[in-house]
Amino acid sequence: MGRSAAGSLAFDARTKSAKPWAAVDAPGRACGMHNATPMPISRVLLVDDEEDIRLVAGMSLKKLTRWEVRAVASGREALDLVPAYRPDLILLDVMMPDLDGPETLRELRSRGIILPVIFLTAKVQRSELDRLMAMGARGIIAKPFDPLTLGRQVQALVEGGAVRE
């Protein structure tokens, strides 16, 4: 995977692979599906057990995108809130106590709730990325992320393109 001079994510032009994702190439880089259907975002549910992440990501998304953001600390809270809040998108931490991100996604799907989920994770090994994308994630954003570009990363994943900085 190459990067442009600005450091943005680029897809592998050498192999021209038909994989539906691009690898995370550095902390804060995103990977996601190609040809995803663009959708408007107005409400985002942020699920992360770390209070600092909830505060920083929540403030960043509210201020820089003007999206309505609700933040909860657990997968269980997310499962309870989703039917009433009806988010357009979920930003979901992978590693949380009790009910982790992948299990939360499985439970949402088992309840018939189909909406875009973007995972937030510090684990960026290829096997982990493959596993998360195979679950139906819209994309993955590596921690630590840049709060100033988080909204653009999310929007790019929702629109199905590479992140441009």
Describe the structure.
The chain has 165 residues and is of the alpha/beta class. The chain has one domain (30-159): 3-Layer(aba) Sandwich (Rossmann fold). It has 5 helices and 6 strands, in the order ββαβαβαβαβα. The protein has helices at 51-65, 75-85, 101-110, 126-134, 150-159; strands at 30-32, 43-47, 68-72, 89-93, 117-121, 139-142. The chain has a 6-stranded mixed β-sheet with strand order 1-6-5-4-2-3, with helices on both faces. β4 (89-93), α3 (101-110) and β5 (117-121) form a beta-alpha-beta unit. The longest helix is centred in the middle third of the chain and has 15 residues, at 51-65. The chain is globular. The two termini are 16 Å apart.
Outline:
The chain has helices at 51-65, 75-85, 101-110, 126-134, 150-159; strands at residues 30-32, 43-47, 68-72, 89-93, 117-121, 139-142. The chain is an alpha/beta fold and 165 residues long. Strand 4 (89-93), helix 3 (101-110) and strand 5 (117-121) form a beta-alpha-beta unit.
